[in-house]
Design a protein that fits this description.
The chain has 141 residues and is α/β, with parallel strands linked by helices. The protein is built from 7 helices and 5 strands, in the order E-H-H-E-H-E-H-E-H-E-H-H.
């Protein structure tokens, strides 16, 4: 069972909901998290149970980032809107940076999300064993 988070900007929420509907069977049995409105919309359209944080601009991105920093998140699907300025852009960049630091797979568009969820569907998601052996120890960082 993996910890998976869903985040989507306003103009990407319909796309996220449709994506999760299409792969609902893959996400069942995993522990799911989301920012506020995205999670509400997904739960209204599916039978999935999602732990919802605040909306992104109110700190939801940072709440998910805290799980990443604690190495408690396994996968993030974050459908970003690259054509719209976001007032909480520093929080978004901080979350993506934490994913890079911890080696957490993050999809920021539907094509990458498809690749990650298909790997998840195949059970081909042993990335922790691969990435952990290349991470420096805490005292080496």
């Amino acid at each position: 069972m993996l910890n998976i988070a869903f985040i989507s900007h306003d103009r990407k929420k319909d796309e996220m909901v449709n994506f999760v509907i299409a792969y609902e069977y893959v996400f069942q049995g995993h522990t799911l998290y989301s920012t506020g409105t995205t999670g509400s919309r997904i739960m209204a359209a599916t039978s999935l149970d999602i732990h919802r944080f605040q909306s992104g601009p109110l700190g939801g991105d940072q709440q998910i980032g805290a799980l990443v920093a604690e190495n408690e998140m396994d996968l993030i699907i974050f459908l970003r809107d690259p054509l719209m300025a976001q007032p909480h852009e520093p929080d978004i960049i901080a979350l993506l940076r934490l994913c890079d630091v911890q080696g957490i797979p993050v999809a920021t568009n539907i094509a990458t999300a498809e690749l990650l969820v298909r790997a998840l569907e195949r059970g081909d998601f042993a990335w922790r064993e691969l990435t952990d052996k290349y991470k420096p120890g805490v005292d080496e960082a």
